Amino acid sequence: MLVIDLESPPGPAGCPRCGRVAESRGRKQISLIDAPMGAAPVRVRWRKRRFRCVDDACAQKSFTEQDTAVAAPRAQLTVRAISWAVAQMRRENASVQGIARQLGVSWKTVWRHLKPVLERLAADESRFAGVTTLGVDEHLWHHVSTKPVEDGGRGPKELTGMVDLTRDASGRVRARLLDLVPGRSARAYADWLHERGEQFRDQVQIATLAPFAGYKKALDDELDDATAVLDAFHVIKRLFGDLVGVRCPGRDWRVGVEVPEDQKR
User: What residue stretch is flagged as signal peptide (predicted)?
Assistant: First the structure.
């Protein structure tokens, strides 16, 4: 485990309630969980400054310095650790348990810090701006009971996922997950499209989808001006599925390699 010692330089500080210059009362050390460095967990020992308000009429009495660039008040994870964890979930498909294992803390500790951040990101509608190519596909979340999460279960098995497939100025596809909603049906997708509003629907020019009639119906109902196309993954999957067992002289099309002489036919 790596340990980082942190403290701010001495200097005057104002009372957060009345604004008067406070009296220094030394320092108090707290331990924070930081983003790992390589495979090693990291801890930050922050020697926070303590103060007492000199105004006897002020209700604040005493307070400790805060720096939201380091960590939120009463948080156990640093801002950097939370940002790292969100990035792990986005780019590496990491689970909360996997993140907790790398940080050396419990599942509950990680989720308590990540949940409000993820809820805030999910409520940010700005991620839907500029989406001109929209993809959709089903996602099987688990293989157990559909018992609600609030009752100790894992919730719905099937989800519908929407992805931004818009190309940037250099021609590269963004490939950003925009949303996940419960269910795999025309209604699940159509309701999501309707909730995005007319401005979002008007900007979508191309809509890719899996070979599922329900999603096509939702597009016909909500994105009738967009060009609907089968996504590349399912085109290739269907193509090679149709070619299974097909052989040409001297070549096996199933694997695309030369066939030994004694197997040619």
Answer: none
